[in-house]
Amino acid sequence: MNTPEQSQLGKSSAYVDQYDASLLFPIPRATKRAEIGVTGQPVFFGADLWTAFELSWLNTKGKPQVALAHITVPAESTHIVESKSFKLYLNSFNNTRLESADVVRDMIRRDISAAIWHGGTMQASVGVKLLLQEQFDAEPVHELDGLNLDRMDIECSRYQPAPDLLSATADEAPVTETLVSHLLKSNCLVTGQPDWGSVQITYSGPQIDQAGLLQYIVSFRNHNEFHEQCVERIFMDIWTRCKPTKLTVYARYTRRGGLDINPWRTSAPGALPPNVRTARQ
């Protein structure tokens, strides 16, 4: 079983500039999910929305081509792909001659799909969309919609995940609301490097205490975990302690090494959010 410590994270790496799918390093989702009480079929659905800003290859004449890539990884996959390995994989296209952007797209879809199921039965492939130079100007920037929790003048003193800070009012009429904070910060599980993010929480059910929710979000500040794992932890803590009837948690993390990873988890299947970057991304 691959573990994060076996990956290239925090290690000196040679950058390969000829296509090499073996650079991808899958990590099982199950290990971290078990820590938050998720075994078997999760109570959530969702996907991880990636944006790759550093993608280039050579056309058949040797001329460099550049593109952005939007990649959608289904949350039901058995594995995630460690982000540094994905960046190394993308760099392996740099001096590889390929016929077209469509060929590059299909290669990425095939390779990432194989990695996230890591030899198991593939139940769903990743989605891949390439944006070429002429499409760059149409890429929007938009902040997450919702009531901003950061407006509250609260005291914070806990910087490891503290689900006991979460509470909801069960004896009043249920509500439906969307809450947003830009104060989410966690650290890479292996290197400890900071990961900065914004989080959007949409729910129906007993009204969640907003001050406690913001303190809870801040409590991730010194926590070491990958983006996908943090969002699933947030989802399960709110689901368990606040008991909403519906819940969606969506985080957008700032990019590192030309890649951002934006996990989205929801209690009921539905349309994916648009993969639109925020100003900090």
TrEMBL record:
Pfam families: QueF, QueF_N. Residues 15-116 form the NADPH-dependent 7-cyano-7-deazaguanine reductase N-terminal domain. GO terms for molecular function: preQ1 synthase activity. The active site is at C188 (thioimide intermediate), D195 (proton donor). NADPH binds at S83, K84, R256, G257. It is found in: Cytoplasm. Pathway: tRNA modification; tRNA-queuosine biosynthesis. It is an enzyme of class 1 (oxidoreductase). Homodimer. This is NADPH-dependent 7-cyano-7-deazaguanine reductase. The gene is queF.
